[in-house]
């Protein structure tokens, strides 16, 4: 598999909505490569897999000290690194990226191994390819599925992507996965679009609203977007999320 990095940190996103692992210790496996191009992506250094020649792992949490290994990574060496980074308080393994589902064969093999070793599996995905979600769903315990707002400019056909993401959430819920949707909002996010997302998600999965970092949205606008979603989805199904790890200065 083509990896970017493996590290042990706190899950910094998701807030308190059901299915979120916010504030829990996780070991993150970041896959390289992505088929989307969100303009605000904070992992853009890893989104072209062929250019990610090496992967790194942090030898001790929060030391910023890394060891580097050549890509492609082998399953056994990845498992060894994860076990070496295990601090005994790990809630789940987070599979993220780039887009982890693009390497679905390797992702499944790793998830299977980690499940056998007694770990829960947390998938962080753009949900844009439901067929791949279908393939990996039986191995997933928790999932965060992005709903890419129009202002992410993730792809040409934005509406079609959102509908695919909702389909992926449906597949995960049907497979019994604790799933929530994550919506990154910006100062240009349109209220009518948030209403549309909320109507799609109503009764299906909770929504974590996450300001794009660096934050450019005013609190008053964030409050309005939250209010629109909560009015449609119910007050217990919407929560605020923000990238806490960036404030803690940890990976
Ligand atoms: C880097 S993505 C990788 C997983 C998957 N490709 C996706 O987009 O969901 C992980 C998470 O970071 C969030 N994210 C990335 N850049 C961000 C930024 N600048 N501000 C807020 N959230 C960001 C994404 O929305 C996503 O929920
Ligand atoms: N601490 C921490 N929490 C995270 N939650 C989602 C992340 C991601 O990049 O997928 C992430 C990340 O990169 N670091
Ligand atoms: S889908 Fe995820 S990894 Fe890909 S560009 Fe968007 S935020 Fe970055
Ligand atoms: Mg991140």
From TrEMBL:
Binds 1 S-adenosyl-L-methionine per subunit. Binds 1 [4Fe-4S] cluster. The cluster is coordinated with 3 cysteines and an exchangeable S-adenosyl-L-methionine. [4Fe-4S] cluster binds at residues 34, 38, 41. Keywords: 4Fe-4S, Iron, Iron-sulfur, Lyase, Magnesium, Metal-binding, S-adenosyl-L-methionine. Residues 21-251 form the Radical SAM core domain. Pathway: Purine metabolism; 7-cyano-7-deazaguanine biosynthesis. GO terms for molecular function: 4 iron, 4 sulfur cluster binding; carbon-nitrogen lyase activity; magnesium ion binding; S-adenosyl-L-methionine binding. Homodimer. Catalyzes the complex heterocyclic radical-mediated conversion of 6-carboxy-5,6,7,8-tetrahydropterin (CPH4) to 7-carboxy-7-deazaguanine (CDG), a step common to the biosynthetic pathways of all 7-deazapurine-containing compounds. This is 7-carboxy-7-deazaguanine synthase. The gene is queE.
